[in-house]
Prior knowledge:
This protein is mostly helical. It contains nine helices and no strands. The radius of gyration is 18 Å and the shape is elongated.
Amino acid sequence: MHFSHTRARIIQSGEKLFARYGISNVTIRQIAKESGVNSSTIYYYYQSKEDLFEHIVNHIELVFGEDFSIAVEKNDPLEQVSELCWLFFDKYNQNINPVTLFLDERIKSNQNERVKKTIRKVENTINEALEKILDNCRDLGYLKSDLSNLVYIKMIFGILVETILFQKRSGSLLKNENQTHQFLTFRNEAIHLIKGILMVK
């Protein structure tokens, strides 16, 4: 999607400040200063900081949705989950600030309803992809426990998030080709753990 240079700077500044301080601690004036524009310029494009936040997170939801649909097209459900995990990690490396923003805001309890609704849209996109994979696993005779898909989704998403947090703590925020062997190994182990959970018969 193409935006004017000014609007692109506003979006990038919003991503950076929201990810660093949280949406509740950032003002339109701060975003204007960071992006080098007047507050009135931001209001020309967005009615509020929540409007800007929604735009940023909706883009992540769109990116996840398009790529996760590709993962679900794989024939084997274990290949599906492996592909989905790699896509999740890759999208983080390509969109560090907005994905960090999503992960941080989803665990807060003091957002307004509009922010919560925006976060839920992204969660639903991820959950729907995982739900399809889990159903495929059950069709092939896996996951015979009484645990619901929701429990498995929470376990899988928890592992994905913890892997991202490990990357943040280690400072390994580079593109795939430059990432450390340590983090690549950790990502592989995380995916292996998830596949192990799904293979229980």
